[in-house]
Design brief:
The chain is an alpha+beta fold and 330 residues long. It has nine helices and 16 strands. Helix content is 30%, strand content 25%. Bound molecules: aspartic acid.
Length: 330
């Protein structure tokens, strides 16, 4: 557990040395919740894209353990939808590419700036955990395809068929017309991106997806690309993305948001500017991108191109789904 002195030192940059009078309050179960009385933003917190109450619960359980780490929390959070066969956009049960292969992308990053990622990974239920092993056990950041699979198997991950009957049936129906059109907010994308800050005021983030349903074989989206699908910096905060990854990749949205916060923007302002950059350069009316951001004060922001982006925030004992504000009001 970080001491009060250390905590204040660590967050001095983020709080602009504004004398926020931070106080540590005892939480019910003897873990410490750190309160910022000026903004009532409690720590620890976990936030994730879309509707993820059980996933956030798994993450918060870790965060409320003695010395629970944000890195372990985001991994635990990602594992919930990754293992859920009903969740057709992440892990097991994820929609396949147009050739019937379920290929997964994921990344993870810790408060030291360590990062790992996998892309185009087949047959492994928990790509976020493989990404973590890449981070912890290899000299590399990203492993891809067959190499990522070989590495996962060498680490003891089990090979399995990720294509469920339900996803296979939907894919066979799609093949009748083979029309590729990412439908805004509907089933074609739903990456889980998540960010957490633990009791020691350390941040971590992760992102996990089966990518766009019926994508071209070999397509990799934004989710495994650090700075696009997710990025964290312990001096500033973090951001993660969901939606049509091509536009997140072209604007490096998560890195942009973190840098905008570094320059003094709130998480909400930073998300809005990052979405604004997309809207300014591209014909934004036909696709969705959504961003989440948090800063080290425990403030959060969320914004999307279109209506309908939801997110789940677990903070100060409350795990709630929220609707994000959005750009396209026409
Ligand atoms: N961003 C993901 C991708 O493009 C899709 C999603 O958010 O669901 O692969």
């Amino acid at each position: 557990m970080v001491s009060r002195k250390e905590f204040i030192k660590k967050t001095a940059a983020a709080t602009l040395a504004g004398g926020l009078g931070l106080e540590l309050l005892k939480a019910q179960n003897e873990n410490l919740i750190i309160k910022n009385p000026n903004s009532t933003n409690a720590l620890p917190l976990i936030i994730s894209t879309w509707r993820n109450l059980p996933a956030n619960e798994a993450g918060m359980k870790v965060l409320m353990e003695k010395e629970g780490k944000a890195l372990d929390a985001v991994e635990a959070c990602a594992k919930v939808p990754e293992a859920d066969p009903e969740e057709t956009t992440v892990g097991y049960g994820g929609a396949p590419d147009r050739d019937g292969h379920v290929t997964l992308d994921a990344c993870i990053m810790d408060h030291h700036g360590n990062a790992g990622s996998v892309s185009f990974l087949e047959h492994i239920m928990h790509p976020t955990s493989v990404a973590r092993r890449v981070m912890e056990k290899t000299p590399h950041v990203m492993l891809c395809g067959e190499g990522a699979l070989q590495f996962a198997l060498s680490e003891g991950f089990q090979k399995m068929n990720l294509l469920t009957e339900k996803s296979k049936k939907a894919w066979e129906e799609w093949k009748i017309n083979s029309k590729y059109e990412p439908v805004i907010n509907i089933e074609r994308h739903d990456t889980i991106g998540m960010l957490a800050i633990d009791q020691s005021v350390n941040i971590a983030g992760a992102c996990s997806t089966s990518g766009m349903a019926y994508k071209m074989h070999g397509r990799v989206g934004d989710s495994p690309v650090l700075g696009a699908g997710m990025y964290v910096d312990n001096e500033v905060g973090g951001a993660c993305a969901t939606g049509l990854g091509e536009f997140v990749l072209k604007t490096l949205g998560s890195y942009l948001i973190v840098e905008l916060m570094r320059q003094g923007k709130t998480p909400q302002q930073a998300c809005e500017e990052a979405i604004g950059r997309i809207a300014k350069r591209y014909d934004y009316k036909t696709f969705q991108v959504g961003y989440l951001a948090i800063n080290m004060k425990g403030e959060h922001g969320a914004y999307s191109v279109q209506k309908g982006f939801s997110y789940t925030l677990f903070q100060d004992g409350q795990n709630n789904i929220h609707e994000a504000d959005y750009y396209n009001k026409t």
